[in-house]
Design brief:
Elements: E1 2-8, E2 11-20, E3 23-30, E4 36-41, H1 45-62, E5 65-69, H2 97-105, H3 110-122, H4 127-139, H5 143-155, H6 157-161, E6 174-179, E7 182-188, H7 199-206, E8 217-220, E9 229-230, H8 232-241, E10 249-252, E11 266-270, H9 274-277, E12 283-287, E13 289-292, E14 303-307, H10 313-321, E15 329-333, H11 349-353, E16 362-366, H12 375-379, E17 389-391, H13 399-407, H14 409-412, E18 416-418, H15 426-433, E19 438-440
Parallel strand pairs: 7-8, 8-10, 9-11, 10-12, 11-13, 12-14, 14-15, 15-16, 16-17, 17-18, 18-19
Antiparallel strand pairs: 1-2, 1-5, 2-3, 3-4, 6-7
Helix pairs in contact: 1-4, 2-3, 3-4, 4-5, 7-8, 13-15
Length: 459
Amino acid sequence: MPIYEFSEGTSHKFWEIELDGSSFTARWGKIGTQGQSKRQDFGSPAEAQREYDKLIASKLKKGYQLAAAAGESMGTQETRPAVHPERSRGATTAGNPDLEAAILANPDDLGSYLVYADWLQSNGDPRGELISVQHARLSSDTPALKKREEQLMKAQGGALFGGLEKLLEEGGGLSVTWRLGFLKTARVAREQYDSDLDVAGTLETLLTLPIAAHLDSLSVGLCEEPGDGSLQPAIDALARVRGPQTLRSLFLGDFEYPDQSDISSTSVGDVTKLSAAFPKLQSLKLRGAGAELGKLDLPELREFTFETGGLPTECVEAISRARWPKLQKLSLWFGDENYGGDAGFDDLETLLAGKGLGQLEELGLVNCSFISGNVDSLAKAKVLRQLKRLDLSMGFLTDEDAEAMVRHAAAFKNLELDVSHNYLTRRGVWLLQKTARQLVSTDQQEADTDDDRYVAVGE
């Protein structure tokens, strides 16, 4: 049971609370005295938990701070050892597999986080107060609560981040967001051109920390100097760690192009081991030059995106063979043959037939030269019947392709159609407005001849 203290001017008070089923007992008073106590009973454990949470949030809002783990002489300052977060830098955070499993089973149950916070505080782990403070900020984000959270973060950086805390500084290469004492999202990357950050080593340390046990989303930027770099070191690190198993979203290649690197100058690498390492992924995004995809077996995946300046035929074949029965969104950038994009329309046969894609609602055939001239065949694709959105942006489409879509208007009439950044004239855009349910047609390009047409992203 945690003890909270409040000191301001001549006022020095303590307050503590113990939850027991459908009731709790609070004790309070002047530090150095036994104080007074009061028990409150409720109609159910859930009701008691709600009131218990409100009281803790209220005390934190008023400026009370964790002082000690109870179990020693309540309210008697001389006999209970204070646990000061500022004095425990470098300590290893505690862990309770049962309570953490309860959070994992129902991550939206805020009460389970607070039960875990109590356990942490009673074991001298200041992360318990961090959870309580972050919980209180959900309902009342006061300057006092924000300041206390910052104090805890600063004081406990070493214990929480295992030596990575300096990377949280601007440009350091690590950025995170929190959810009640656990990391919700994280991004690791070389942000500066001359950075010597060991991205792979950082990932291995980060993903084995207690605070990363429930990580939901991870992004990885550049791992090596721009130019001829690869994401392979990061991929290898992820395969070695094989966790956390809560990871739902993974973005490999989270860099700005062309500002940080040309998209075709950074290789994705061999991602074949990721299916086994993260079988519960729901979103996978790749950005960079061609990857080795191997056998994609991701039964929970809802979204797959591959942004590249040149998509090789073997990648299209691997994507066509992939097992992802729950996939709802598939977006592929095909790019330029000069940068490895040697796939053609015939290579899409399996995808356009919708084989293994029974839940697909959005399809992107993006940054593509060969849809132009093949609209008649595209209109016959079985997969179009189940789609809500078709993205043909950043390609070669002309007014002749718009006329072909009009001829097959029935195939496109229920779609949101994105044809932005193509080679349509005002007439071509006007034709398509009559065809699709909704049309996105911004940023059209001009070309005097077919040889003057280029996909939007190549190098």
